[in-house]
Amino acid sequence: MAASMLKESGLPSPLLHRTPTSAPQSALNPVHLAFSCQTSPHHLDCCKLYCRSGAIRQLEAKKRSRCKCSKTSLLTNATTVELPCLPFNPSEVFTPSASKTLHLYEARFLALLDEVLGKYNNLFAHIIVERVVGHSLGLGQEINSFAATYGCLAQVESVRQLEVGALVTIRGIGRVSIVEITQVEPFLKGKASPFQDDIPEDIKGISSMTKKLKQILADVQQLQIKLKTSSSDSLQTPLEKALQWAEKGDQDSSLKLFVPRREERISFAALQPVAGASARELHKLLQERLLAMESTDTLQRLKNVSLFAEESRASIAAKVAIQSLQL
């Protein structure tokens, strides 16, 4: 699957093999499709794919025909839109505001890239595919079932051709729920709906926590600059780039329904790999990302990521202190 073809700075793959939990039937929308052995994540001859919203709720798919809007107005006023889908394993969860570089080289994923660039305004759905409980067909046969979870609308920012395939840099725009699979071959397509936080009630509390989080992240950023890392590391950290995007959001009016509010964007921007992170710290980052993707409470997420950022600040400060003693 596509997870075998990506590189993300600071997040080695696989970082964590997470055993998926089965969701109740009411939270799943079965799509009766038989995968070919090439498309199935585990090269199975027959399986069933389920669509699940952010692992916590199902948004009902609207009955509408395939979108025939122009390229520039693909998402305008659309609450459900068909998009190419690139599947990954749970260790590769992708969040709004984050960026990473994919190395695509298989023919089917290069075909997906061509269509994304040519017909979908550089947009596709980054999804996590998880195994769920199998269903018996009788006579000793079983359908191997998978759930499409943790969807994130991704936008291609740059493409660099290689001798084999292409390096593709993408940016996370906002969470999406995959409510229906519309195509399996040569690559997945599905209908996606925006999946965002509930409308907040405690505006003052959110504003206060956002201000506190930004101060912690400013400290983390300054400490990262002081910490000596590889000479090949970019001077601009993933955290700084994510925060810059989170502050302004995406200016494309066609994406307005899919871009979360500023405070929600900043809460996700905090979840970036930091300089010198250990395997344990990266494991913790992944767990925080999974938790953040499931939540619809902006204030609670801000509180959670603030605690995580404080831990990161303390860890980097200790590393900087040790480094100064070694000079």
TrEMBL record:
It comes from the Eukaryota. This is Uncharacterized protein. It comes from Diphasiastrum complanatum.
